[in-house]
Amino acid sequence: MSSVHYRLSCLGCGRSLEDSSTGFLLDCASTHAPALLRAEYACCDFEVHPEEPGIFRYRSWLPIRRALPSPGRPVVFPSRSLGPRLGLENLFIAFSGYWPEHEAFLMTCSFKELEALAVCGRLPAGSEHCLVVASAGNTGRAFLQIASEQEIPAVVVVPESALAQMWTTRPRSSRVLLAVVKGEADYFDAIRLGNMIAAEEGYFPEGGAKNVARRDGLGTVVLAAAEALGRLPQHYVQAIGSGTGGIAAWEAAQRLGADGRFAGQAMKLHLVQNAPFLPIAEAWARRERRASFVHGSDVKERIALLHAPVLSNRQPPYGVRGGVYDALQASEGRMYAVSNAEARAAGAMFESLEGCDLDPAAEVAVGGLIQALESGGIGRKELVLLNVTGGGSRRLAREVERYPASAELEFGVEEIEAPAVAGKLRGRKAAAWV
Ligand SMILES: [Zn+2]
Predict the structure, then answer these.
(1) How many angstroms separate the alpha carbon of residue 212 from the centre of ligand 1?
(2) pTM recorded for the entire structure
(3) What are phi and psi of 58, to 5 degrees?
(4) What pLDDT is attached to residue 397?
(5) How far away, in angstroms, is 40 Cα from ligand 1 center?
């Protein structure tokens, strides 16, 4: 597979760019307001290649250089009991995680594995530069797993509070390191440390929402729905932290809309945050493109209260051109705020009715679906796709051996400055790159 099947288009100035041959092109070089790049594919019609493994059945719409031999992909099926209980006639579940009866085998139990697969497939084979990924939890676990599987040099950076979620279902490769920021650190601190590591020679940043492979990997959820349903859902429900999954869903829907078979089928976004940390919901309620998220004395206290701490990005790609604000506006979308108690009750209802345990973030999404029905945001006869972004981890823990990951690199928040970071990396590099 070559990279000629896609180019990158800047959503700020419209320039069409070729991807970097060694790493990832993440930004346009022109001077203008912040804007995302978007992959533009040579193939304008939706193609499925069932002979390819996992998400690579959608390879025509993935910005990859190679398909990885990994079977994980999202699965889409009609709700057995939750839909009827809620009075919804056409509820479909897009599930990413471990649920053997539905042939769902994303072994880290989260849709973040979709982005890890696409991002790793975007790398040239045999690349010796080291990928740096910052995460609040699930993304880090996904990259530990997929980079290990593919022997891709990587450093995963997480706050210490996420350490318990760092495990793999295969022994970790010695080329894949885990770094933690200790103490009261949160996702934002992990991002700061990740940026600093990525600036060192031999390292490069994964790029988060700026990475088109991350977004189009997550967008395979909507492609899987289009394949299963033969049309776009009218409503798409997902819990968000950064909102990257929401942007990705919207982009996938736009791409499908350019194919005559799906033309004119609007898909409305219903994005859900976990109260009391609601930066995007609050900014959207004011219809403000330029919102300041990082500041505020009580931010860390609010994050510490969350049922789903992965939904805690303090610097989401919201106002950037092509970001969450644009996706909500273009799809006439809605935002919801779900409390911890609502999320727990919704998760328990899902598990008892459908028979699978959910990630806290997916429980928040189910709570959002209930609110959307109660508020009239979704009609009971309409076609709804609930993105269950993670599940099956409690069952997996019983059925599959897991390898807990311990950190090779530890940093205090006060050590997130260049000399300390460079010094610690020097000590580790030789061991990891032999
Ligand atoms: Zn540009």
Answers:
(1) 15
(2) 0.95
(3) -105, 30
(4) 96
(5) 14
Please report, for residues 65, 120, 210, 297, 339, the alpha-carbon distance to residue 68 in angstroms, rounded to integers and kept in the order given. Answer: 10, 8, 22, 44, 39
Report how far ligand 1's centroid is from the alpha carbon of 19 (Å).
14
**C-alpha of residue 10 to centroid of ligand 1, in Å:** 5
Q: In what order do the strands lie in the sheet with 383-388?
A: 75-78, 90-95, 383-388, 235-239, 268-274, 334-338
With a cut of 50, which residues of the chain have pLDDT below it? Answer: 3, 430-431, 433-434
Provide the CB-side half-sphere exposure for 12 (13 A, CA): 14
Amino acid found at 91 = L
pLDDT score, position 290: 83
The C-alpha angle with vertex 224 and arms to 227 and 172, in degrees rounded to 5, equals 145
Is 241:311 a contact under the CB 8 Å cutoff? Answer: yes
- CA 39–ligand 1 middle distance (angstroms): 13
DSSP codes joined into one string, 127-181? --SEEEEE-SSHHHHHHHHHHHHHT--EEEEEEGGGGGG-EESSPPPTTEEEEEE
Ligand 1 center from residue 30 Cα (angstroms): 5
Which pLDDT score is estimated for 90?
Answer: 98
For residues 65 and 3, is the Cβ–Cβ distance under 8 A? Answer: yes
> Which residues fall within 8 angstroms of residue 348, CB to CB, at 6 or more apart?
none
How far, in Å, from the CA of 12 to the mean position of ligand 1?
Answer: 5
